[in-house]
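#lab-general

N.A. 3:47 PM
ok so I finally got the sequence cleaned up, no stray characters, all 64 residues accounted for. can someone with queue access submit it? mine expired

B.Y. 3:52 PM
send it over

N.A. 3:53 PM
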Amino acid sequence: MSVIQQMFQYYKVQFDASRESDIERGEVSATTVVMAAALVALAITVGGIITARVRDKANSLNLG
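B.Y. 4:20 PM
back already:
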């Protein structure tokens, strides 16, 4: 196999790998959507808990 044939074979393999990577990159799976939704729900829950605790603590302060 000549050097030029090896170079063409190398670039073809690289091009095919790049093309496959581009196809996979734009894809969003159902697992990704479910995980994102779970993280958003968790963040909202934690925010609610923190807000409630801060509000309870603020209401228990004796300012008078």
